[in-house]
Amino acid sequence: MIRWLVLLVSHGGMLAIGFALGVYFLPILTAPKGPDAALLAEASQSAEYQAALTRDLKGSDFLHWGEGSISLSQDKIVHTGALSPGPDYKLYLVKEFVEDEARFEAVRESAVQIADINTFDGFIADVPDGVNIEDYTTVLVWCEAFSEFITAAKYR
After folding, report:
1. Measured distance CA(107)–CA(101) in Å, rounded
2. 136, 141, 135: which is closest to 122 by C-alpha?
3. Which 3 state secondary structure label does DSSP give 49?
4. Rounded CA separation 84/131 (Å)
């Protein structure tokens, strides 16, 4: 009886670890290749604002981070750098700088979702019609599936 219990616990634990690793690595394996450096540079030429993404924010950790630069114009948001891989990332504009889950959840109603992020080595997102980047101060990357803060940068 003890042998069956030990086998059940050990195999169940390995199944849980395998599932968790699958959730983490699947987005990496299925992510499309990001835009090349020349395309990112060209898209950021007309930027009105620039900001830096760093790993040292309160809500970032070794699994949830972003680094590089973000360029904003009235019609495009361009990220040159890297994001930690994960599922269901969303790009938001926020009216005030936030750097963790709790602060974002508190101001989420006034934030606007810009785009889904499917690449982790840079992206170009179109700003939807009717969204004025002047109404916001911060760009933020959020993992919708797990309600995890990834990174943010204040651009004005």
Report:
1. 10
2. 141
3. strand
4. 27
Instruction: Classify residue 110 by its DSSP letter.
Output: G
Taken in order 103, 109, 112, 118, is the CA torsion positive or negative? positive
Which long-range contacts does 101-107 make (Cβ < 8 Å, 24+ apart)? 101/59, 101/147, 101/148, 101/149, 103/59, 104/59, 104/140, 104/142, 104/149, 105/147
In the block, tokens 């992510």 appear at 31
Q: Two tokens at 35?
A: 């835009």
- What 18-27 contacts at long range (C-beta under 8 Å, 24+ apart), as own/partner pairs, is 23/87, 24/63, 24/85, 24/86, 25/85, 26/87, 27/85, 27/86, 27/87, 27/120
| pLDDT values of the chain reduced to their tens digit, one per residue, 156 residues | 888 888 888 888 888 888 877 776 666 666 678 888 888 899 889 899 999 999 999 999 998 999 999 999 999 999 999 999 888 899 999 999 999 999 999 999 999 999 999 999 999 999 999 999 999 999 999 999 899 999 999 999
Q: Yes or no: say if 119 and 34 are a contact pair by the CB < 8 Å rule.
A: yes
The predicted pLDDT at position 18 comes to 82
